[in-house]
Amino acid sequence: MAIHLGLTQEDSMRVARRLPLVVGLALTLGLPAHADLAPWDQERVGKLAVELAVAVKDLREDVRKVPGHNLGTLQSRSRHRLLDALRLIRSEARHLAAELQGGAGREETMSIYERIGSLSRDARENANRMQLPEPVLAGITRAGSLWSQLTPYYDPDWKAAASSEE
After folding, report:
1. Helices (DSSP H) in 5-133: which residue ranges?
2. pLDDT at site 159
3. Over the stretch 31-80, which tens digit does the pLDDT of each residue have?
């Protein structure tokens, strides 16, 4: 069904040619500015990624030491899912560190950062279903702290997220 706006065919063609520009500008203006991000520090971000990979490795080892529960229980399933999520997070953190050490910047590593965030949310859900001993809780705190230090370099809303956590 065509909508008639009282435009001539020539006017309609002009609007059609400009539409991608207008849509592009609208989308660009709606995106958060890079000014909201922390100034990029390649060395620091790379170091944090390496530390995150080590912290998650240690955390996974601590979770493995937690006695297993009866097969088929929620605790058992959560433990296995948590271990798997931590394995994937460590792999992604190592990949992030390697990319950063190879010279990749924010744009090139954003998808890795986002994937780690998604996996971290899954890990957190499963950890919340378990009764975890102090060493594991300390490991979660350590990994979370490193993640929080990476966030200002990637997430333009990091200030709002930080203030909502307080």
Report:
1. 9-30, 42-65, 74-101, 106-128
2. 75
3. 344 458 999 999 999 999 999 999 999 999 999 998 876 656 777 889 99
Contacts of the segment 101-110: beta carbons below 8 A, 24+ positions apart: 101/46, 103/42, 105/40, 105/42, 106/37, 106/40, 106/153, 106/154, 110/154
The residue with tokens 């080892």 is 61
Q: How far apart are CA 86 and CA 56, in angstroms?
A: 6
CB 69 within 8 A of CB 129: no
Query: Which of 148, 145, 48 lies closest to 96 in space, CA to CA?
Result: 48
The structure's pTM equals 0.74
- Per-residue DSSP letter, 157: T
- pLDDT one-digit tens code per residue, 96-140: 999 999 999 999 999 999 999 999 999 999 999 888 999 999 999
Q: Is 35 exposed, middle or buried (0-12, 13-18, 19+ CB in 10 A)?
A: exposed
Give the pLDDT of residue 67: 80
| CB 79, CB 69: distance < 8 Å | yes
Place of tokens 């530390």: 51
Give the whole-angstrom CA distance, residue 118 versus residue 73.
Answer: 25
